[in-house]
Design a protein that fits this description.
By secondary structure, the chain is mainly alpha-helical. Helices cover 73% and strands 0% of the residues. Helix 4 crosses helix 5 and helix 5 crosses helix 6. It is elongated.
């Protein structure tokens, strides 16, 4: 899922992206500047520009890395669950990750700050990941239905991040788990078959 042309991950790249997460959480993704990231990373401005030639390259690398981390956390939630609890645990893991992540927390307070194209890319990556997880080991699954349900799940989750619900309480894992068991798991179950 690495961004094409982003180059290898180095300590300097990690430092820059870590600083960019904090800056984006404070100022928003749209107001993220190379200069502010360089200051936060305690690096020379030219070091940041050598690694990411343009602001858009930095933002693309940041979104790609954080998406990869998010999907890894969701996959870990699925892996830790019994098969009948996979959907619910994936949902809870996704919400928990977003509550703890500074950029995603800000998105819940002020909106994502992403462009329509960035949002669409994020939705596609999330939907593809969910469909792949749903279809893995489900030989009777309906692939078209899995894609549709995965798209609904990805869009639902993005809306939950952008505008956290009060019912179920976004901060209560038990309520989120109950919601997922009552609403999301049956949707997935109809697609996956016996």
């Amino acid at each position: 899922m690495r961004t094409p042309g982003a180059g290898p991950v180095t300590d300097t790249a990690t430092r820059i992206l870590d600083a960019a997460v904090i800056e984006a959480a404070q100022a928003g993704l749209r107001k993220l500047t190379m200069d502010d990231v360089a200051r936060r990373a305690k690096l020379a401005r030219m070091t940041v520009y050598r690694r990411y030639g343009r602001r858009e390259e930095l933002v693309d690398a940041l979104v790609a890395r954080e998406t990869e981390r998010f999907l890894a956390a969701v996959a870990a939630g699925i892996d830790a669950a019994d098969s009948e609890d996979g959907v619910a645990e994936a949902f809870v893991a996704a919400v928990r990750y977003s509550r703890d992540h500074p950029m995603l927390r800000r998105a819940g307070q002020t909106g994502s700050g992403m462009s329509a194209a960035e949002t669409e890319t994020l939705l596609k990556q999330g939907s593809d990941f969910i469909a792949c997880q749903m279809l893995a080991g489900a030989p009777n699954a309906d692939p078209e239905g899995a894609r549709w349900v995965a798209d609904v799940f990805a869009r639902l989750f993005l809306s939950y991040i952008s505008c956290p619900p009060t019912d179920p309480d976004f901060g209560e894992d038990a309520q989120l788990r109950r919601f997922a068991h009552q609403v999301l798991t049956p949707m997935a179950g109809r697609i996956l078959g016996p």
